Amino acid sequence: MQQNQEHTNTSASRRFCIAPMLDWTDRFYRRFARELSQHTWLYTEMVNTGAIIHGDPMRHLRFDPSENPIALQLGGSNAADLAHCAKVAEQWGYNEVNLNVGCPSERVQSGSFGACLMLEPDLVSDAVKAMRDACSIDVTVKHRIGIDQIEDYSFVRDFVGHVADAGCSTFIVHARNAILKGLSPKENRDIPPLKYAYAYQLKQDFPALEIIINGGITTIADSQMHLQHVDGVMLGREAYHNPWILSEVDAAIYGAPHIETTRRAVMEDLRGFVEAELAAGTPLRYVARHILGLYQGRPGARHWRRMLSDAALLKNADWRLIEEALNIVESRQD
C-alpha cells in the first residue's frame, strides 16, 4: 500500500485535467501522460466501490508516485461504502476522491449510481458528507447538466447548491445532458448538445465553488477561452488520441517555463518505467496501446500505430520494439 505517500506536486491545481475514461486512463496511460505534463491533474478510471471493498485493491488502486497529482474516481451510491473507499484512497496517497454522478450507461444505472444520482441530490449530499468525514483529501463530484428531457438550468443549479451545502466545493461539469435510455455511453458523449453557458452560470451563481468544465474541448486555445469563465478544464478523448497536446499544458495553462522536448525524448524518459514493468512480467501491449497516438498528424504515424498494435510483434516483445518503431518513424520526420 502506498500509504501516506508524500505528494510530489505541492503547487498542484485543477486548471487542466484529464477525464476519467473507462479502459483508457489506467496506470500505464497516466504514467505516459505524466511524461508529457508535470502539472496536469490525472484521474483514474471509475472504480466501483465493491471492487475496492471485495476485490483486489492493488489492481484497482496502484499508481506510480510520479502520477501525482491524481484523483480516484468512485462509482457507487451507498454512503458507508463510499466513505470507506474515500478513507482507503487517502491511505493510498491520492490527492482527491471524485464521485461519479455523470456516467449514463445502463450497467451503471442498474447499480443505482452514475448520472441517475442527479435525480437524488439528498443521497449525493449524504454520500459527500460521509466521504468528507472519512478523509481529509478533497471530495469532488463530476456530473452532467441535466437528465433526459430535464434541460432547464435551474435543475443543475439546484443540484450543485444542494450538494455544496454538504461540503463539496469542487464540481466537474460535463456540459451535456445524460440520456439514460436510448443512447449508448458513446452517443451520450456526442449527441446531447453542449451548453457551456450552464457551467459559466454556475461559476457566477456560486463564485466560491471551484467549477471545472468538461465536454468537447479539444485544443489549448479552447481551454484558455473556457478558463476566462471557470476555474478549470477537463479534456477526455483528445488527450488520449492526441497526447502530444499535453506537452503544451505546463507552459500555456500553468505558466511554467517552456521546455523544448521531442516525442523520442518523452519515450526515452518513459523507458525506465517500461523496462521495470516488463521485468515484473507486464506484457508490453499494456503500455503500447496507450502510446499509439503519440505521432498523431505526423509523418510515419500510421507505421507507428501499426507496429505497436500488431499482436504478433507484441508477443514476448520488449523495449526493442519501441526503439525500432521510433527509429522508423523518426527517419520520416522533416
SSE topology sketch:
Layout: E1 16-18, H1 27-36, E2 42-48, H2 49-54, H3 57-61, E3 70-75, H4 79-92, E4 96-101, H5 106-110, H6 121-134, E5 138-147, H7 153-164, E6 170-178, H8 185-188, H9 196-205, E7 210-214, H10 220-226, E8 232-235, H11 237-241, H12 249-252, H13 263-279, H14 285-288, H15 301-309, H16 311-314, H17 319-330
Parallel strand pairs: 1-8, 2-3, 3-4, 4-5, 5-6, 6-7, 7-8
Helix pairs in contact: 1-13, 4-6, 6-7, 15-17
What can you see in these coordinates?
- Its EC number is 1.3.1.91.
- The record marks 100, 186, 189, 302, 305 as: Interacts with tRNA.
- With 334 residues, the protein is an alpha/beta fold.
- Residues 1-11 have low confidence and may be disordered.
- It folds into 2 domains: 16-252, Aldolase class I (TIM Barrel, Alpha-Beta Barrel), CATH 3.20.20; 263-330, Four Helix Bundle (Hemerythrin (Met), subunit A), CATH 1.20.120.
- It has 17 helices and 8 strands.
Protein traits:
17 helices, 334 residues, disordered N terminus, Four Helix Bundle (Hemerythrin (Met), subunit A), TIM Barrel, alpha/beta, globular, 2 domains
Q: How many structurally independent domains?
A: 2
Q: Outline, from the CA principal axes?
A: globular
Strand order of the largest sheet: 1-8-7-6-5-4-3-2
Rg from alpha-carbon coordinates = 20 Å
Number of strands: 8
- Main β-sheet: number of strands, strand sense, barrel status? 8 strands, parallel
Helix/strand/pairing category? alpha/beta
Low-pLDDT stretches: 1-11
Percent helix, as a range, is 40-55%
- CATH architectural arrangement of the largest domain: Alpha-Beta Barrel
Q: What is the CA–CA distance across the termini?
A: 46 Å
Mean pLDDT: 93
**The top level CATH class name of the largest domain:** Alpha Beta
Family: Belongs to the Dus family. DusA subfamily. Belongs to the dus family.
Protein name: tRNA-dihydrouridine(20/20a) synthase
Keywords: Flavoprotein, FMN, NADP, Nucleotide-binding, Oxidoreductase, RNA-binding, tRNA processing, tRNA-binding
GO molecular function: flavin adenine dinucleotide binding; FMN binding; tRNA binding; tRNA-dihydrouridine20 synthase activity
